[in-house]
């Protein structure tokens, strides 16, 4: 139960911490045996048209016990489950702690993983399955995690919702139930595309057969606003609830935010599921050079941290080693990249709290010529940073470098920053301490020419810092000493 004893929050962490399964994923099938010896198969219930709620909890978990005692899941099961007039819902409690004993579910308590909040069985009318492997299969990262699984296998984390909210959410599944012969559905994207402005990306969408007969063809359109970006005539053979990813058309973004609407144009039996939204986020970050360095400072839990660098063809260029880094250590990786190519750096934290600042002052930096272009610390589950390399920008870097001065230095609190900009742009100013942690960050818009801005550093502790300036793909840095 890593970190659990250090927390006093409303959410308890699973013993085997992993990233949560993304919403709208296809839920894997599982079979479990309840405390009374009954066998339950998830897909069997889904094929019967049930929406299934799954509460993955642990007997020792206080927040789990609190939600359990709201009886929200029991009320939904009793009012809308098997044998009721509605007969649309199934509910399961999954004991997700692998070290527990069955006695804990009836209130027998020990310490640590063997602690029990009370009698979980008393008054529970839906099946209780003591099988942590199911929670692992569902990639449960914390307790309680309450999932909703629609008949078409789509899983979402619905959370600790009330009985009325749970029941209302069942309607969202109805349009994906296979109850007519010919029906192709477009599923919500699990994640959205992230690229660089000016770099092409494939617009893809998931097509699911929600008909009772095989789906062999469909025409799908992608639009941005009123502009048709392209169409694709897909052919294949999908049985009921099978899914195919369809690349509709390539798209080269010219702006940062791009909302995409996908539509099935071919006629089928159910029109309400023929549209899905997606998006493409494009960054304008320029890496001024091709000799790029990653500096990664870990926190106290380096085993939770991993990263991947993708090239412009979405291939893995490099990734973190299988053996975790040492705790609280600085790790350096160097790459020689291609010029004028869009790369994507992704860093992950399995626990979901980034690498700063509750358990150490971790950070990551992507640098060229010693200047930090991209940095991050408290990013949650992941941080995705695309950038485009440019040797030409590296030459232009001297324009910012030569025109930059900071004064007075040392300063007692107010620092003047003078710079000369070749064009109107936004200027990012980041002050970091000797550990690389960000202590001040500002972004301001300026016109072309000579500019002077005053930074108030009176609240920053005495010491030596680095002021990094990023403007229109150019970078420069100055050491700053603060005295009070």
Architecture blueprint of SSEs:
Elements: E1 12-13, E2 25-26, E3 31-33, E4 39-41, H1 42-47, E5 51-57, H2 62-68, H3 72-80, E6 89-95, E7 128-129, H4 132-137, E8 142-143, E9 145-149, E10 154-157, H5 163-169, E11 184-187, E12 193-196, E13 201-209, E14 215-224, E15 227-238, E16 243-251, E17 257-264, E18 275-283, E19 286-287, E20 291-297, E21 305-310, E22 316-319, E23 330-336, E24 342-349, E25 363-368, E26 371-376, E27 382-389, H6 391-402, E28 405-407, E29 414-421, E30 425-432, E31 438-446, E32 449-456, E33 463-471, E34 474-482
Parallel strand pairs: 5-6, 6-7, 12-18, 19-27
Antiparallel strand pairs: 1-8, 2-10, 3-4, 5-9, 9-10, 11-13, 13-16, 14-15, 14-17, 17-18, 20-23, 20-25, 21-22, 21-24, 24-27, 25-26, 28-29, 29-32, 30-31, 30-33, 33-34
Helix pairs in contact: 3-5
């Amino acid at each position: 139960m890593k970190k659990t004893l250090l927390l006093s929050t409303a959410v308890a962490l699973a013993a085997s911490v992993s990233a949560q399964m993304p919403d709208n994923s296809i839920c894997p099938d599982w079979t479990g045996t309840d405390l009374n010896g009954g066998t339950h198969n998830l897909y069997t219930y889904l094929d019967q048209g049930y929406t299934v709620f799954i509460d993955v909890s642990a007997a020792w978990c206080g927040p789990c016990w609190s939600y359990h005692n709201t009886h929200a899941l029991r009320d939904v099961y009793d009012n809308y489950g098997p044998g009721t007039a509605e007969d649309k819902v199934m509910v399961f409690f999954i004991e997700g702690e692998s070290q527990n004993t069955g006695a804990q579910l009836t209130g027998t308590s020990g310490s640590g993983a063997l602690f029990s909040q009370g009698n979980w069985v008393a008054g529970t009318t839906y099946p209780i399955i003591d099988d942590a492997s199911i929670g692992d299969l569902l990639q449960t990262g914390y307790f309680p995690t309450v999932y909703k699984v629609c008949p078409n296998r789509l899983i979402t984390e619905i959370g600790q919702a009330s009985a009325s909210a749970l029941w209302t959410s069942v309607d969202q599944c109805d349009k994906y139930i296979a109850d007519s012969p010919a029906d192709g559905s477009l599923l919500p994207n699990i994640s959205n595309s992230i690229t660089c402005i000016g770099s092409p990306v494939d617009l893809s969408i998931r097509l699911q057969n929600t008909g009772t007969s095989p789906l062999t063809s469909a025409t799908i359109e992608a639009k941005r606003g009123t502009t048709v970006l392209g169409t694709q005539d897909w052919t294949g053979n999908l049985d009921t609830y099978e899914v195919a990813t369809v690349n509709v058309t390539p798209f080269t973004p010219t702006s940062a935010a791009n909302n995409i609407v996908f539509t099935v144009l071919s006629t089928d039996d159910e029109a309400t599921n023929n549209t899905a939204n997606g998006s493409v986020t494009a960054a304008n970050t320029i890496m001024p050079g091709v000799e790029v360095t990653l500096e990664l400072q870990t926190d106290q839990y380096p085993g939770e941290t991993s990263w991947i660098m993708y090239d412009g063809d979405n291939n893995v260029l490099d990734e973190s080693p299988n053996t975790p880094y040492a705790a609280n250590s600085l790790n350096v990786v160097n790459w020689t990249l291609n010029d004028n190519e869009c790369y994507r750096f992704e860093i992950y934290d399995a626990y979901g709290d980034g690498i700063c600042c509750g358990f150490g002052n971790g950070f990551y930096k992507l640098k060229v010529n010693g200047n930090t272009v991209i940095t991050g610390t408290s990013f949650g589950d992941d941080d995705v940073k695309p950038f485009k390399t440019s040797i030409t920008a590296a030459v232009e870097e001297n324009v910012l470098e030569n025109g930059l001065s900071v004064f007075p230095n040392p300063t007692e609190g107010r620092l003047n920053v003078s710079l000369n900009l070749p064009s109107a742009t936004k200027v990012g100013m980041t002050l970091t301490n000797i550990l690389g942690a960000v202590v001040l960050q500002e972004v301001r818009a300026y016109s072309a020419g000579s500019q002077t801005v005053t930074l108030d550093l009176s609240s920053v502790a005495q010491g030596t810092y680095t002021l990094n300036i990023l403007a229109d793909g150019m970078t420069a840095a100055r050491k700053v000493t603060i005295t009070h």
